[in-house]
Design goal:
The chain has 171 residues and is an alpha+beta fold. Helices cover 25% and strands 25% of the residues. The strands form two sheets. It has a five-stranded antiparallel beta sheet. Strands 4-5 form a two-stranded antiparallel sheet. The radius of gyration is 15 Å and the shape is globular. The C terminus is likely disordered.
């Protein structure tokens, strides 16, 4: 499948909530393959459909690409149904190259989603895997990682974003 261009901030598609996928099968499977190919090529550990210009609730995550424990997770219409704890760690985004910030995320989550054939499944995650899933689900809701910051941390991140060649419309 083709590697697609990654949509960069401040493209408005990154700020829109994606509609749910209603039809499963070949088209959504092809979209998932394009997402995976693009993510691995970038390289990254996760990618959501709006990051390649598609408004659909589809995301892929592999927190160990190229390693023996590498596993691609394809999530269609994912939603977090349970979360616990809190961890703060650095995050970046393929759609906002050059910006990384410490973001608070749940330490553990449980996600419900569908596979490309329409089979429902649940997934439990913790640590970096939970962080990556939360980040990609945020993309499907039109939320960018720097929007999770508050107060002075958010203000400083927005200043850094405005200084990036692609971040002229931050705020």
């Amino acid at each position: 499948m083709p590697v697609r261009p990654i949509v960069l901030y401040p493209d408005p598609i990154l700020r829109r909530r994606c509609p749910e996928v209603e039809t499963f099968g070949d088209d959504v499977a092809a979209l998932a393959r394009d997402l995976a190919d693009t993510m691995y090529d970038a390289p990254g550990v996760g990618l959501a459909a709006p990051q390649i210009g598609v408004e659909a609730r589809v995301a892929v995550v592999d927190v160990a690409p190229g390693q023996a424990n590498s596993r691609l997770h394809v999530l269609i219409n994912p939603r977090i149904v349970e979360s616990a704890g809190k961890e703060s760690d650095s995050e970046g985004c393929l759609s906002i190259p050059g910006l990384s910030e410490r973001v608070d995320r749940p330490a553990r989550i449980r996600v419900e989603a569908f596979d490309p054939a329409g089979a429902r499944f649940e997934l439990e995650a913790e640590g970096f895997f939970a962080r990556a899933l939360c980040h990609e689900i945020d993309h499907l809701d039109g939320v960018l990682f720097f929007e999770r910051l508050t107060g002075l941390r958010k203000e400083l991140a927005l200043r850094r974003l405005r200084k990036l060649p692609l971040g002229r419309e931050a705020g």
